[in-house]
Amino acid sequence: MKKTLEILKKLSFFVKATKCDFGKLELEYLGHIVTNQGVKTDGKKIEAMVAWPQPTNITELRGFLGLTGYYRKFIRNYGVLARPLTNLLKRRNFKWDADAAAAFTMLKQAMTTTPILAMSNFNEPFTIETDASGDGIGVVLTQQGRPIAYMTRALGVTKRTWSIYAKEMLAIVEAIRIWRPYILGRKFFILTDHRSLKYFLEQRVATSEQQKWVAKLLGYDYEIIYRPGKENSAADALSRRPSSPLLNSIFISQVSLWDDIRKAAEIDLYMQTIFQRAANDPTSNYVVKNGLCFYKQRVVVPLALRDQLLHEFHDSKVAAHSGVLQTFKRLAQ
Question: Which of 170, 205, 236 is the last residue of a domain?
Answer without folding.
Answer: 236
